[in-house]
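Shipment paperwork, digital attachment
Item: protein structure file
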Amino acid sequence: MKDNLNLHQDRYFSSNPKEKKIAQHLYSKVKNLPLICPHGHVNPELFVENMPFPDPTELLVIPDHYLFRMLYSQGVPMESMGIPPLDGSETEKDHRRIWQVVADHFYLFRGTPTGMWLKHEMHDVFEIKKKLNSDTAMEIYDRICENLRKQENHPREMFERFNIEILSTTDSPEDTLEAHQKIRKSGWNGKIIPAFRPDSSIDILNRNWKKTIDKLSEVSGIDCSTYRGYIEGLEKRRAFFKEMGATTTDHGVHSPYTVALGKTEAERIFNKAQKGKILLDDAKQFIGHMLMEMARMSVEDGMTMQIHAGVYRNHNKKIMDRFGPDMGCDIPIATNFVNNLKPLLNRYGNDRNLNLIIFTIDESTYSRELAPLAGHYPAMKLGPAWWFNDSREGMLRFRRLTTETAGIYNTVGFIDDTRAFPSIPARHDLARRIDARYLAELVAENVIDPNEAEEMVIDLAYRLPKKNYKFK
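Attachment content:
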């Protein structure tokens, strides 16, 4: 029937019969492998009390900027999707009405990764067998609510049902990691670890930077109001994160610019920032210097370093002013890696004690810059197709633009990079199917043989992320 929700067993594979048959076989080798989730934004508090998720809107709509970004582009007000303005003015609070708005516009997501993920979630996670539209909205809402009350759909049970082997969250240095400590003490066997993301401590242009440094002083027990204390405080917090199981750091930057400042110059800029008298160029120099410092620390403590660059964040000033940051207004920008990373790579790129993973949403750099860099420097690897490129076509483009120069063994498999916990299996399934499709094409064209393809598809799904993120 036209209203039935069906997930075709051969979705995302080539329509070429020979390639499809090979892809089916390759996918069968990885579809049931454990999920390795080395980078994401799932809140660890979910797993502390293990309470039921509240309702479909709270779980799937309000936290998901992919959803309200698309609806806003079609003229749907943010307030009607339950997004609260900073000034406290009215927003829609009826979660059924919000769900109806999404259902009325769900056709907008045809052919998009968001549409693909949500269909998978509804079909496989919540056992929904009808398509979401205006007519079925309330029936599906009630059905998901019913399923969320089942024990098997509580956070810990979902974690186990999804076959997640390990999940890394993203945490600031000033975070006490209390949730992680409670999970450890609970006796539950689910492996959830933190990742060290010091953006809030490094971005000296952020209006809350001074408060962040005060908090860093508090949690580290070191006076971080001096440059020396600041560096020692960050080092101490890294050590604590490692004790709590962290194996990675993560750095979200506008540009991958790196520079080695002398101690006196770094101290000068830090002191100006403490007084609130910072210039744009000073900030650029300091952030570039701190990326170098983070690389130094990774060489010393062995934590894998991730850099996410190439994003103009909060592009829409009206939305930023009214609703705050991270509201789906981020846009890809042109990025230069060859020149910007040269100081870091020349100092640490030949050191095998550094494992540096670079991400971007500037696809133009894949074959021109990133694959050649990763195909040379022992320390550097390519992160997978990320954010706007975490899609059926984006992942295929990534493989085709990077494999011939860097191979797959200078890449790190797949990351789901999600805040929406129930979407994790859908995202991994899409990636595994696309990798099976890509490798099937190479087998069909006699570039690699079937045995090599079997090894490669398992490496991409499981072995490479475990190795590069240093999971045991």
